[in-house]
Amino acid sequence: MSMIQAINSALDVCMERDPNVLVMGEDVGYFGGVFRCTAGLYEKYGAHRALDTPISEGGIVGTAIGMAVNGLRPVAEMQFADYIYPGLDQIISELARLRHRSGGEYFAPVVIRAPCGGGIRGGQTHSQSPEGIFTHVCGLKTVMPSNPFDAKGLLISAIEDDDPVIFFEPKRIYNGPFFGHDNSGSKTGAWSAHPAGQVPTNHYSIPLGKAAILRAGNDVTILTYGTLVHVAEAAVKASSIDAELIDLRTLLPLDIETIAASVQKTGRCVVLHEATRTSGFGAELVTEVQESCFWHLKAPVERVTGWDTPYPHAFEWQYFPSQERIIKALRRTLAC
């Protein structure tokens, strides 16, 4: 099962189990979504539960909040994460703070899905990774899966959660794991050949706030999420470095216990993300590691990230954190 199919399956399962769950967004109904994640839901559940909306992200989020405080569980889609910005005021000023400002009298179980990231030659307006913005906002939970099995289980947990969740979906890995870029072109795989592509059709959930150790190791800890999980895994195999690879899965709440235990064991840490470097989520990870593991560190914590520029079209692979950049960072850390 691809990640697209896994997300569709999660939505279908939740809509079937709970009549209060609905999907809404631009082209999510009759057309089935620009990436086909909501295909078939309009036909199965009708236009009142698979709602096509106007092109107004602020309106989509505001409407979803109104639905949620009245007992529904809307799953709102931003067609691309790059288009989420017109909805920021509703998300930050209203959705995230509703439970607090009402003294717990009201809550809004809204999930906002957003395809994110590059690697598809989408240029600066279709390739952004704005997850760091939302981890800075109290009252939101922020999730980014790296494979179909996790995507379905985490999305079901997000829909069933009473707090608002921003659910980022790395579109580069919708149809298969992506291992980075080299001189011969993009390297990719198929989910059908990957263990995480074996996704049950029934209901199951993965708890928010729990990271996954994908590879045990003793020399250095790699912290990452989304597409770069697979790039990092390929880099470790290519370098023969004994790295422990942790897929964060949920950025907020963060599984600091798993992170600290790993770094205290290895004594070294490399943080990876595709988003721009300055004030990216990696900066928070570096700080958490520093605070929790200072006396165990044998080397400074390294970051491999995107650059502080708009996402370039012509120079995408110079921007994208490659296997080569990851291996160099690992070796620098081990050299200390």
The largest sheet is: 7 strands, mixed
What's the rounded overall pLDDT mean? 95
Shape: globular
- Element string (H = helix, E = strand): HEHEHEHHEHEHEEEEEHEEHEHEHH
Q: Measured on Cα atoms, how large is the radius of gyration?
A: 19 Å
- Number of helices, counting only DSSP H or I runs of 4 residues or more: 12
Q: Measure the end-to-end span.
A: 43 Å
Q: Strand portion, in percent?
A: 15-25%
Overall SS class: alpha/beta
With strands numbered from the N-terminus, the spatial order across the biggest sheet is 2-1-3-4-6-5-12
**Approximately how much helix is present in the residues?**
25-40%
Multimer state = single chain
Q: How many beta-strand segments? A: 14
pLDDT under 50 segments (min length 5)?
Answer: none
Characteristics:
336 residues, alpha/beta, 12 helices, 14 strands, 18% strand
Describe this structure in words.
With 336 residues, this protein is α/β, with parallel strands linked by helices. Helices cover 35% and strands 18% of the residues. The chain has 12 helices and 14 strands. It has a 7-stranded mixed sheet with strand order 2-1-3-4-6-5-12, with helices on both faces. Strands 9-11-10-13-14 form a 5-stranded mixed sheet, sandwiched between helices. Strand 5, helix 7 and strand 6 form a beta-alpha-beta unit. Helix 1 packs parallel to helix 7 and helix 9 packs across helix 10. It is globular, with a radius of gyration of 19 Å. It starts with a helix and ends with a helix. The mean pLDDT is 95.
